[in-house]
Amino acid sequence: MYYILVYGTAGITACLVLIRIAWTGFKDPYGTFQWTARERPPDCLKDPSLGHHGYLKGRSSGLRFHYVTKGDHRKPLMLFLHGFPENWYSWRYQLQEFSSNYHTVALDLRGCGDSDAPVPLEEYSLDTLLYDIRDTIDELGHTSCILVGHDWGGMLAWHFALERPDMVQRLIVMNAPHPASWLDAVLRRPSQLLRSGHACFFQLPMLPEIVLSLEDFKLVRSLFCGKNLGIRNKARRLTETQLEGYLYWLSQPGGLTGPLNYFRSLLSNTLYKHQDIGVPCMLIWGEADNILVEGMSGGTRPYLRGPVVIHTIPECSHWVQQDQPERVNKYIWDFVLDKDIIKHNH
């Protein structure tokens, strides 16, 4: 039933997208089928105040991973996992904020940013991606971490906490449902899958890469800056330079395939485990998220048997750590400094 819903939605979405492309292409063929590969990274990606750039080699994969780090490496590790279609830069507000107490590291996930991007879809299996996280923690000289994830990074964080609770001191997830609650919500209300029609559309080969590139990445721009999907906080809306911090890597040849392979692999081939998370966990959810299905935050609670804190932020978009960084940072400080989280559990 789940696969029928996913691929049925993919077909419906593809038809609608193709009709729109035909219409815009008819009106402005040159502008529609035009996009530019950026020649040099924008200055924001080289800002030294955000931290030092480094590379590590995954022991399991042999791939090279890029990361940005700030803070003393002898302090506890706080590892950040970004979502789609982002890179390490989405954690710029948190890298600086928590570097006083932690060894903060924002990783470019496999296939994203300046990390290696294997082409075959099997290179993006769940087990492979979880090995990347384990190898990163090991290569950085730590045995465990405070794991922070958003969007697909949040989904990986949920799974990693299930598989390796010994390596996760505390889990912080933003706008990413527990994998089992996602499946439950979709099967209970199949109509909600249309709200995440993009995730189903991305199952298709080649076409999503073309669609996302049209009109110089207009759809990607609308994700971050559009009225319905983009960052709501006027003071934190992306500047053109900050937007280029994402478009630079996505515009490179094959730059969209790696990020899209997360959808193709995890959404279509993963049988989500109905397991409970035992590590202390905090879920932060922007209530104005028009990308994920409704009700995801509340649906996660039954799968958390350890201490749990859930915060919802009204008028906050899917890009929660960029939209409301001060509020998100306060929630994180309260959570990580709480020595007796069970006492304060609510």
From TrEMBL:
Keywords: Hydrolase, Membrane, Transmembrane, Transmembrane helix. InterPro entries: AB_hydrolase_1, AB_hydrolase_fold, Epox_hydrolase-like. The chain crosses the membrane at residues 6-23. Pfam families: Abhydrolase_1. The keyword Nucleotide-binding does not apply. Residues 76-301 form the AB hydrolase-1 domain. One of its GO terms (molecular function) is epoxide hydrolase activity. The keyword NADP does not apply. It comes from the Eukaryota. Belongs to the AB hydrolase superfamily. Epoxide hydrolase family. This is AB hydrolase-1 domain-containing protein. It comes from Cyprinus carpio carpio.
